[in-house]
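ok trying this again, last paste got cut off
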Amino acid sequence: MKKFLSWFKNSTKIKRWMFLILIGIVLTCFGFSKMLTSERLELIDLSLIIATFVVGFICFVLGIVYIQRRNLELLIEKNKIDTNNKELKQLVSNSIYEKGPNIVVIGGGNGINNILKGLKNYTNNLTAIVPVSSYGRPATMSIKELKLHPVEDIKNSIVALSSNTEEMKSLINYTFDEGKLKDLSFGDLYLYVMQKVYGDFTNSVQKASNILSMVGKVLPVTLDEMRICAELQDGTVIEEKSKIKQIVSNKVTKISRVYLNPTNCRTAPGVLEAIKNADAIVIGPGSLYTNVIPNLLIKNVSKTIRESKALKIYVSNIMTEPGQTDDYDVSDHIQSILEHSGKGIIDFCIADVGEIVPEYIRKYNLMGSDVVNIDTSNIKGKGIQLIKGELAGIEDGYIRHDPEKVAKLIIELICTDLRFKDQQTNEQYVLLNSKLKEENKKEKEESKKAKKVKQPKEPKEKKERRNSKFSNKYRERIESIKESEKTRQENIRIH
């Protein structure tokens, strides 16, 4: 009874739909009764009865649909508020977020991990497709070989998709400092043991996702041995990934293309199926020539993406990368991907237009990096829609994509696509739209709090001086005159 009465609170917004259902029932009953009690029906009377019945039926159906939609939103809101209710959280996770959009993220490094951290708050149907190492990874591997073939991208993606990111990061990155396991991390050892138990690396990674209660799953793009090679504009060929940055910087030239050796590397099990079933495919951010493009060069990956009906989204890097993308604009990044993978692999490009603290930009400038310029006209000329947003944040002293802001833009794109397909009553749309409303509400509250913080008042004299155009223009000259006058008075006093 209490739960039923709780529906009538102002905050629930349920009463309006219950009232609409009641109107629908009344109109439908009225139409039936009019038809049964009338001895003779004229054309006008018949038209009125039909219209009343139709309107009543529509009101009834709409009331049912929207009351179910609102109940779903209330369940999501309850889950956000009551964080101690483990049963409710488990129910929401299993029943609602499993119906969220199927999103595939392709790339490597810190870039895609931040994207995964944000997207896991909207859906459980996440798949991260990442490179395994510089040279691929055999299906089986000994403990000694494990030290020589790091799986950083796999481990970092596992951390990004875990329910408790910080605790999982500490566990996975714990490194042994003595004995036979010296210099080996717990993450490496865990994946090695899983491989021994389940037979091959791909299967062990998928099983690890279930055992660690991750949101989504991580897939290596290939298990074949491979080398990432680069050909420079001056004809130089580099056959080791680790030397690309150094040689490009020394020769002061640019990369013409990258390729794999051998060229016929096969996709790992489950990769193509994940792409085919995706509602949205996110490419990048990450090192363009060593993390992003190599994934797309694996056999049939680019072809499957081009043929997919999913939204294809490229998240541009915020900063250029020395030895890879020096002086690159956003359109240069896109053009390189298109040249390696073919047209039709990108529909939307998300780029950052936010302000970054100058001190951090100077820090990157000293390392040979700069902000990636957004050349809007060139991007649109490629038939790609540009989506701008304030996406940059500072993490551990580095400029990174803000997980929440990027995820929000991606989800807004998916919601827009669902609205375009007239699927506003779809469970996916209800879930995503409700979450977006929560995020917008949070932003407004934070903005109001920021406005309420009062800045310390400056003395009136300083304020007037700051607002004076004359003072701003001739500040140095005024200071010089003051200094001269001070010196003159000092000389008079001495003499």
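PB: full thing came through this time. The CA atoms of residues 312 and 347 lie 5 Å apart.
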